[in-house]
């Protein structure tokens, strides 16, 4: 055996003594390992035959393949991390961009955990005060005890509400944004998405109405993953297929994080209600593209595309800004904090001290489901089932 936590070159052999591989072996006795248990790592040569033969030998000795997220789940159960940090491991593995990596690392370093642990400590104190007011109503408790408790509950209620009102920036960064390109037929929407994606995503043809369905392209803008949607042209039509394409375009645009309205340089202006307005084909009508609050581009020549990319990157960065306190990154967290917020609102309005204490208790439990501080077996299955195999 090599010394603990020092890589050593070793020959790996099968039961008959045949050489399987030369590998770097690291032995990590617990609790100084990722999971807190005794662990060993083999850094093999990457050939399929090597991996399969070594895995078969390990299985014959009683080992088995890890379940998705099993190592991180064991680390959580050993108390080496809470659920928010465990989820950050999955986010770090899945990160596509630098911004996603930074957000995951911030959560892995305990940003959310520290915030929620602080709230839990305050909730425990409030609950103790509430119980004291119930158990000792006739005792000589300080006269401002009741007012102090009410103020503390209201203060935490406002903090939780502010945390929830973050514009879903953390979730948007983790999941990626959706930008929809809309406009009348034949204004160059497909040419524009091809230019932004740097490849031929959509079919381009002179005939209007070529795009009938929503076409997607994944790009990175401002360090944020963005799905661009090329939608069908919007116009009145008797063609049922084109009409369905228009309906889908409107539906996807309504759910998008940003709508990019495109028009021709020598035609009617882009939709004034859109988040970003663009005129295309300025190569055909340069002067017509000079409109206030409108970006002028030519998808054919590339003129103005860099300015458009900069504008889109700025919007993406603004929608996912990570400055300030740690942000929510998952719908699971948001749902639990919604329950906590509801409990705190009810606690501030409770007519009976017993009801106020019960709402505080329920709020504490809701908060605990985020970090795993309460019995959350059902939550664990959901959290770790989405991990990579072996992580």
Compressed to H and E, one letter per element, the order equals EEEHHHHHHHEHEEHEEEHHHH
Number of domains: 3
Q: Number of DSSP strands?
A: 9
Individual helix count: 13
Q: Could you list the spans in which at least 5 consecutive residues all have pLDDT below 50?
A: none
Structural class: alpha/beta
Secondary-structure arrangement, i.e. CATH architecture of the largest domain: 3-Layer(aba) Sandwich
From the 3D structure, determine the CATH topology of the largest domain.
Rossmann fold
The end-to-end span amounts to: 25 Å
Instruction: Please bin the fraction of helical residues.
Output: 40-55%
Strand content: 5-15%
Rg, alpha carbons = 28 Å
| Major sheet description | 6 strands, mixed
Shape assignment = flat
CATH superfamily of the largest domain: P-loop containing nucleotide triphosphate hydrolases
Major sheet: order of its strands? 5-6-4-7-8-9
CATH class of the largest domain: Alpha Beta
Q: What is the average of the pLDDT values?
A: 85
